[in-house]
Amino acid sequence: MTSSSIEIQLQTLPDTPGVYQFFDAKDTIIYIGKAKNLKKRVRSYFNKNHDYGKTNVLVKKIRKIKHIVVDSETDALLLENNLIKKYQPRYNVLLKDDKSYPWICIKKERFPRVFSTRRVIKDGSEYFGPYTSIKTVYTLLDLIKGLFALRTCSYDLAEEKIMNQKYKVCLEYHLGNCKGACEGKESESDYLKNIASVREILKGNFKNSLTVFKTQMKTLAADLQFEDAQILKEKLAILENYQAKSTIVNPKISDVEVYSIISDESYAYVNFLQVSHGSIIRAHTLELKKKLNESDAELLAFAITELRQRFALQSKEIYVPFRIELGSNLKMTIPKLGDKKHLLDLSLRNAKYHRLEQLKQVKITDPDRHVKRIMTQMKSDLRLTEEPTHIECFDNSNIQGTHPVAACVVFKNGKPSKKEYRHFNIKTVEGPDDFASMTEVVYRRYKRLLEENQPLPQLIIIDGGKGQLSAALKSLDELGLRGKIAIIGIAKRLEELFYPNDPIPLYLDKKSETLKIIQQLRNEAHRFGIEHHRNRRSKSALHSELESISGIGDKTRVQLLKAFKSAQRISFAKLDELEQIVGTAKAHKIYNFYHNKNEV
After folding, report:
1. pLDDT band, very low/low/confident/very high, at 508 (cuts 50, 70, 90)
2. Cα–Cα distances in Å, from 517 out to 341, 408, 412, 522?
3. 50-77, pLDDT tens digit by residue?
4. Which residues, 6 or more positions from 18, have their beta carbon under 8 angstroms from its beta carbon?
5. Would the pLDDT of 173 be above 80?
6. In this structure, are 383 and 527 located in the same domain?
7. Contact of 534 with 403, CB cutoff 8 Å
8. Domain with 468 in it: what CATH number?
9. Is position 354 within any domain?
10. How many domains does the chain have?
11. Axis crossing angle, helix 38-46 with helix 3-12, rounded to the nearest 10
């Protein structure tokens, strides 16, 4: 389809809510989106060049546009979600998990059973869930088993079969786990009262069950049935303990859903909590792979639609961190303080923990993806034009103004490349001048790389503020590298990042991975420079001491250092050890020098 025919389609799009589909030359759906106004939204793809490269690629591939008009924005959200899951277009957000979740079923039958299942059968049975953790299911079933004596057999307990004494009680009856409904030892009405209590507990409402147990316990105690009263007291303790652990906020907060999102350059993580009577009865984190640099608002709206469908959620109110477009059927609350804000913070914390777990797993199982993500994040955080797979960091050392040196450390793909570290002894600068020293070492480093046709880094980091950065820029200007290599300075006190010609520093999140790598580079350069400075001072002190021994020349000093490795060992050497290296006469001079000095 030609661009003119696309223009005709754009002109005829309606100004209504709906879903649009983009097709490529092979008539394959490559993107599905929703819109409050189809004409405005679809036109926006063709009216400008997009900052994100993949969006430009998508637009170039569009050969045909189809749309579906719906009644409301809510309907558009649902339809978009269903179509994306059905066709899985190349440029749409990718859902990372698609597994079956466990449910708790109250079976539609006389004397209903309560059990876990992963299959939902439309036979009139009640299903609670799905739950995102099988551990939660087992905990709830154990709680129910401890509170209520429900049958676990699969007998058909029709009234006539019980009347005809078709069944006999099993071991569960004798253990006290069942009241023997199969032999008519328990009425259906009493059994259904327990099922009603189970239903409320699964909804997160413990109040009714607690009231019933307390009333029964007091009645039994008044009738002097202390053993039965004790059994109820133990059940009451089980239920109160579970309620205490599960209640997070005020029990008046009921039938709400809480959503939060955290994202990076490639993925987004949306956490969801379902709250009933102050208790969290379900929690899940959804992982989304970005395709077109979608905003957090777009991703959160998509995820909420998906989660509400997946878990059959019916709450009328949701808590979210910011306003999003979800239609008018839901009450949307953006908490600022109190219990509601506590729930939102808890959801965000869960999203962060999930992301950290995923990143740790990826680092082990897919290191290439881990490196790619880190590089993409650094490119974005530091406003670079390319990923900094090769970074070099410089630091000066001139303790007390003596023996000025500098260090250059190299990181490749976010990791130290120690074989490429370099030391520099300052040659052209007199006295402790950090700025001039930085100019010298940066010039020497990149002049040599250019002469040897070695690859240049994508990023240079200067340990220091504006002054050090300006000094390094002089060398890049002289070498014609200004603008060809990104360069920043980092000030130690507040971790400020300075850019050329920008008086306002950049501050990164203290917990960001980008800042951690920069700090690691800075610390490594400092350590490497101090180590070299210490070695130079030691050698200088060593040579000064040996040179002061009358009658000992350069060749003798070299012989001694090769044999004993250090000046300290020479000073502690025995006379016969020295004689073996330099002969009797020189050995006496050296031995007497150190011996007399140590005695003073």
Report:
1. confident
2. 33, 15, 11, 9
3. 666 678 888 888 888 888 877 777 777 7
4. 34, 35, 38, 67, 68, 69, 70, 76
5. yes
6. yes
7. no
8. 3.30.420.340
9. yes
10. 5
11. 160
